[in-house]
Amino acid sequence: MGMPLSAGIKLGTYEILAPIGAGGMGEVYRARDTKLKRDVALKVLPEVFAKDSSRMMRFQREAEVLASLNHANIAQIYGVEERALVMELVEGEAPKGPMSFEDAWKIATQIATALEYAHDRGVIHRDLKPANVKVTPDGVVKLLDFGLAKAYSGEPDAVPADPSVSPTRTFGATVAGTIMGTAAYMSPEQARGKVVDKRADIWSWGVMLYELLTGERLFQGEDAAETLAAVIHKQPDLEKAPPQVRDLLGRCLEKDPKNRLRDIGDARYLMQETAVPTPALPARAPLPWIAAALFAVIAAITGFLAWKHLREEPPALTKLSFPAPDHFEPIFPTVSVSPDGRRIAFEVIAGNQPGIWVRNLGDSTPRKLADVSSASTPFWSPDSKRLGFLDRGAIKIIDGTGGPPVTIGNINNPNEPGMGSWNGDGVILVSEVNTPMYRISANGGSPSPVTQLDRARNETGHMAPWFLPDGRHFLYLARSTDSAKMALFVGDLGSTNRKQVLPSGNRAIYVNPGYLLFVRGSTLMAQRFDAGKLETTGDAVPVAEQVHSFSEGAMMLGHFSASQNGVLAYVAGNPAGNAQLTWFDRKGNKLGAVGAPGFLQYPSLSPDESRVAFTRFDPSTADSEVWIWDVAHGSESRFTSTGDNRSPVWSNDGAFIFFAGAREGLRKIYRRSANGVGAEEILDPSSEVPMEASRDGRYLLTIETPNPRIWVIPLSGDRKPFPYQSSEFTQTHPRLSPDGHWLAYVSNETGSAEIHVVSFPQPGGKWRISTGGGVDPVWSHDGHELYYYSRDNKIMAVDIRPGPLFQYGVPKPLFAAQIAAINSSFAVSKDGRFLLPVPVEQGVTASISVVLNWPEILEKK
Description:
Layout lengths: L9 E2 L2 E10 L2 E8 L4 E7 L2 H4 L2 H15 L9 E5 L2 E5 L12 H20 L2 E2 L8 E3 L5 E3 L6 E2 L36 H4 L6 H17 L9 H10 L9 H10 L11 H11 L13 H25 L5 E6 L11 E3 L5 E8 L2 E8 L6 E5 L7 E2 L5 E6 L2 E6 L6 E5 L7 E5 L4 E6 L5 E4 L6 E2 L9 E9 L5 E8 L6 E6 L2 E8 L2 E2 L1 E4 L3 E6 L2 E8 L4 E10 L4 E4 L2 E4 L1 E3 L4 E6 L6 E6 L5 E16 L5 E8 L4 E8 L4 E4 L6 E6 L5 E8 L2 E8 L7 E4 L3 E6 L5 E6 L4 E6 L7 E2 L7 E6 L5 E6 L6 E6 L6 E3 L5 E6 L5 E6 L3 E8 L5 E2 L3 E5 L10 E2 L5 E6 L7 E6 L2 H6 L1
Parallel strand pairs: 28-34
Antiparallel strand pairs: 1-2, 2-3, 3-4, 4-6, 5-6, 7-10, 8-9, 11-61, 12-13, 13-14, 14-15, 16-17, 17-18, 18-19, 20-21, 21-22, 22-23, 24-25, 25-26, 26-27, 29-30, 30-31, 31-32, 33-34, 35-36, 36-61, 37-38, 37-60, 38-39, 39-40, 40-41, 42-43, 43-44, 44-45, 46-47, 47-48, 48-49, 50-51, 51-52, 52-53, ...
């Protein structure tokens, strides 16, 4: 948040006097207007937030909403100064029940009057609660904090056609799947992430009125998750409310907004009709000590019953969802639920910067904790107070509430995404894609290996550690170039012994009450697991559908996590899933589809553009095959049939197709006649992926795996591959210019993926082409333009000026596009049309789904 402002500091003409309070959007100070000689309230956005465009948007929105409202019961805004809102200073306290019937009515009436005024001007508050109300010493009510307020369109059930244009989108605008507000006062539709209208304020008003009258929360739980479950499922018990107000409260607290009171003005009218004098108190009250003793006994009994109930009857199965901020680009498993089930951490790209974010369940917005340079899966400490993550080889820890991260150690490979797990003894296990498992103390030190790669099984890395309850044994996935030998193992901190648990390449975690969770296809599965015997029992059963995963061949890393007390979170929507190859013009207009939809990647146009080769992935079997679409006949046919083939590349004359295939445990580059006649031929026995054949037929450009580097295979002579250039950074997607003089590729040497161009065939000068991130470079047919896909989902074009020296222009966006498959690409025709694998459901973005008490799903099955 930054350092608080000290007394005497000036912001423009306002001198800070003293702090008043702090909230999610900043600190509030009492300040002196030195020009008009009056005290005001300054709501100051911290400097770190002022650099966040999303928070600045919300800050600006609050100023605009307040400026549109001028009412005696709404705190006024006087202006904006630098990064501060200048507001009316309201002296007073937040109302607190229990209070007399008469006093509660007076406060509720003024709140209703303010809401009616705001609703009539198209503004809904969305965070109505006692803390956002002040009662002055004169009894005047002031409604505060419109930070979550939203302009209401008047169409309560309409979802915006394009959520990206909503000014509140990155804070969870009222589009389907969003949670905003404060848990105890949310309407059920808010808690479910549904579209809300002014009736959500009416619900909150009813909840608050009940609290003012009784002094008790109407909906509560041990944490926000239980509170949300109560809001959604529990019928409000109004027996403690005065009889004359129960009918009104019941109409305000209908679960279905269609049955709820439609206008707060009607509530004011009903209040006037039903209001009665406060009953007189008895002449003498019981002796204080008797009342106190009685209260203590009742409280003890009630507390015991609540404790017993919560443990014998867990909260009902509840499903929620919320969108991640800005551009959500999950690659490695990105979601991590804290062990206590109260918070969810995830990696996201916001403002072109990857970062670790945390969201408390029930809070209105996530908070960014740290920037990172590459994909990283955050993992929690056992006490849920700290987070660990890897950032280009550095093992870091950060407090779950914020602050600078601390580096506790480093592992050897700085270019790969990492994962980790933390046990109760302060031991942290970490791994990257192509390393064994390492252990390090949470207090820092030198990492030491705890597993050994089995070369007889062609193992290339041990990934995805997850400690079992004893803190000694741990699950991990053994990655292999032989898909049949990928497996889930249990390792031991005390030895190199291990035991195979599942014969598959699926990441898995262990959760109470004794299950392994893993993804099969796009379905999250649960299978009983005996943590003592270290073995599975029974069959796996489905828990959730459409769970996103990162897949590479037979390896599947599901984007899910769970706490030990029944909170499950996963990335839903599968943004790298079902796709349709679609033609677009330079303006982004759709021109037609190619073939049937499916899990498609790597479209490749034949030189005469009569055929399209592409990869089709089967999520149910984790197999991928190369298919060919015949443009003239409008039909597609299968080109390969062995279970793991991908990345087709046409030869310069269209006679052959190069592709990557896994045979006998190793992925190799094969060549086969494009007409499907004849046997496949091994072109390179090493583990590589073909990317492009030069137009003169002399070279095939490939990517070495598992550490991405550019290699060149001569297509004549001895065909001996050679590396293009050595680098400590990753190099992917090499593309040769039509004249064969310039090579475009993607590198992470700047800390993020960017497009670079170098001379070819010998390395010479180097130029960075993209700005703000880019992948998938593609040359135009004449070589006068270079296209790429930007981090903010646009097809970009860069002018290239041919000549002995490489000259290029400024990147310009052509059109917004959504490429469905991660690590895919696109193709460009001779006449400048673009062939992209786009999601079948355009506009559907990934969201994070949360399931409370998920084991109940298994009980129902």
